[in-house]
Amino acid sequence: VSPNQKRLAYNENQVLIVQERDSLATMRFEGHEQLLQDIVFYRGGMCIATGSDDQNVKLWNIAQGQCIQTINLNAGSVRSLQMSHHGTLLSVGTNKGCITVYCLDTMEKKCALHGHKDTVWSMHFSHDNQFLISGSVDKKIMIWYLPQQALVKKLKLHDADVQSMSLHSTG
Q1: For the residues 123-127, what does the mean pLDDT come to?
Q2: Coil/strand/helix, residue 147
């Protein structure tokens, strides 16, 4: 659901479907070659990022109805996407435990974070975009300090995969 609650996005295998809240009309966005794994809205719900088993992240402009950028990771299948609170950073987690952070203003890779040994299912940015926390199939939660691309803390608090997390708004 978009931040303004007016759009719903979901996938049907390789196709992104976007539906306006008060309409039966749907928009179809095709371009991934394999199964979609995650979808995240950004720019106030005007754009969507999708990640797929095809190792690509695609950025879509809903109003234009087209893909505006494709990022080829070559680092494994995309499993999770997370947008920063300010909408300027996008983190991408893969099935190989790699996390890559991109600056959406310049579309440049800001950093690559290596530490997880398996699929990264969940990530969250701190409100100031200084920290990223990540959870993985390796049963660990990692806290990263982004300006130095440094692992601050590694927590093993679980006996099972870390598939979902939440970060309190005060950090």
Answers
A1: 94
A2: helix
* Amino acid residing at 69: Q
pTM of the model: 0.88
Q: Quick check: 5 pLDDT over 80? A: no
- For residue 66, CA distances in Å to 27, 32, 37, 95, 171 come to 10, 12, 19, 27, 35
Instruction: Please name which of 140, 144, 117 lies closest in space to residue 132, comparing C-alpha atoms.
Output: 144
Residue 4, helix vs strand vs coil: coil
Per-residue pLDDT, 117 = 95
Q: Which amino acid is at 23?
A: S
Q: How far apart are CA 164 and CA 109, in angstroms?
A: 25
The pLDDT assigned to 32 comes to 92
Provide the mean pLDDT of the chain: 88
Rg (alpha carbons) of the chain, rounded to whole number: 16
- b (16+ CB within 10 A) / e for 26-43: eeebebbeeebbbbbbbe
Residue 151, judged by CB atoms within 10 A of its CB (0-12, 13-18, 19+), counts as middle
For the chain, what percentages of helix, strand and coil (3-state, to nearest 5) are there?
0, 55, 45
Average pLDDT over residues 77-88: 93
